[in-house]
Amino acid sequence: MGNVMPIPKQHRIIKPENRLQSKMRLSKLSVSELMAKANAVMAAIAASYPEWLQKDLEKLIAAHERLREDPLDEAARSELFRTAHDIRGQAAGFGYDLASHAGGSLCQCLRQRPVLSTADLHVVDAHINIIRACLGQSLKGDGGAIGQELVAELNILIERTKPRQ
Amino acid sequence: MSVLIIEDNENMCRILTRLLKSFGFVDIRYAAHGQMALGLLREKGVDLAILDWHMEPMDGIEFTHKIRSKKTSPDPYLPIILLTAFTEMSKVKIARDIGVNEIMTKPLSPEALYARLTSIVRQPRPYIETESFFGPDRRRKAQPGFRGPYLRRDDKKRKLAALSG
Question: A16 touching B, CB under 8 A?
Fold first, then answer.
C-alpha cells in the first residue's frame, strides 16, 4: 500500500446514526475522578507486572534456545518476535522503559535479519540480558547509568553485526 | 454499550478489561484474533471494537479491511480503535487508510483510552465512500491556510467560493 492516497473521482459522505450516544452510560464520576480511579487500576496492575515480565522473559529464553538449535525454526522466531513485541507494548506502561526499549529493538533486529546467524543470535541474547537485568536489578525508567551502559553496548553490537544493504 | 476486545495477549486483555470496567463498561466480550471476531460479529453485533494490530491468523488491519468491505461486512460502520506498538508514520497511514477510527499507541494509558472513547461517542466523524475507500473521514480538522491539493469535487466549489471572497 502506497502512502499517496488515490484521487477519488466521486465520493459520498455518510453520516450514520450515532448509536453510541444513547448507550454511553459511563460512570457518574467527573473526568478527573474517573482518571484517578483508572490510574489506581494501573498502579494495582503494576504491582503484578514483574511476574508478567518474568513469564515473557522465560518465553524469550526458550525461543532463543530453540533458535540456537535450529536457526530456521519459524515457530520459535515468531514466538520471539511476538513476545518482544508484547514487552515493547506493555513494559513502559509500568515503569520498565528500558525493557520496553529492548523489546522494540529486538523486534527491529528480527525484521532486519530474516535468517539468524550465530552473531545475530548473540544480538538476541544481548537483548534478553537487558530484560533480565531490568527484572533482576529492578531497573526502572531508562535504568540510570547501568541502563545507559547496557544500551550503548547493545547499540555497538547491533551496529557491528548489522546486515549490509 | 458493548465492547469487543480483539487481542491475543492475555495481559493486554486484562489491562483493557480493568480500565474499561473502571470507566463503567459492563458488557465486554473477547476474541483472540480477527477471524474469531468476525464470526462473533456475525452472530451478535457489538457497539465498539478495540483490537491489536499484530495477531495471527488474522491481524487488526485485515480485520478492519473486512469490516469496511460493505458487501460482506457484518457491520461496516463498526467503530474501531486500533492498538499498536508501531509508531512509524507509515504504519499510522496504513491504519488510517484501511478505515480505523482511532489509533492508540502502546503503552496504554487511561487518559489516551478515555480520550479515544469519548471522541468516537461524542464527536463521530462522517463516513466517506469512494471507489477505493470506505471508512471514517480522514480529515479531522479544517485547516484555514490549506493550499491544496483539492481532491474532492466539493473542494473545488469551496476553493472557488473562497477565491471569490
Answer: yes
Q: What is the 3-state secondary structure (H, E, C) of B109-131?
A: CHHHHHHHHHHHHHCCCCEEECC
Chain B residues with CB under 8 Å of A79 CB are none
Give residue-wise pLDDT tens across range A69-101. 999 999 999 999 999 999 999 999 999 999 999
ipTM value of the model?
0.83
Give the contacts of B132 (CB within 8 A, at least 6 positions apart): A6, A8
Q: How far is A16 from chain B (nearest CA, A)?
A: 7
Judging by beta carbons within 10 Å of its beta carbon (0-12, 13-18, 19+), is residue A59 exposed, middle or buried? middle
Mutate to test the interface with B, among A3, A4, A10, A14 (most CBs of B within 10 A): A14
Residue type (1 letter), B118: T
**Is A134 among the domain residues?**
yes
Task: Quickly list DSSP for B81-106.
Answer: EEEES---HHHHHHHHHHT-SEEEES
Of A3, A7, A88, the CB nearest to B93: A3
pLDDT tens-place string over residues B6-50: 999 999 999 999 999 999 999 999 999 999 999 999 999 999 999
Residue-number span of the structural domain to which A76 is assigned: 54-161
- Alpha-carbon gap, residue A10 to A16, rounded angstroms: 19
CATH topology for the B3-138 domain? Rossmann fold (3.40.50)
Question: Can you give the CATH number for the domain in which A111 is found?
Answer: 1.20.120.160
Question: Between chains, do B110 and A18 touch, taking CB under 8 Å as contact?
Answer: no
Closest CA–CA distance from residue A122 to any residue of chain B (Å): 25
Q: Kindly report the nearest CA distance between residue A153 and chain B, in angstroms.
A: 24
Q: Is the pLDDT of residue B165 over 70?
A: no
The torsion defined by the Cα of A154, A78, B91 and B58, in degrees rounded to 10, comes to -170
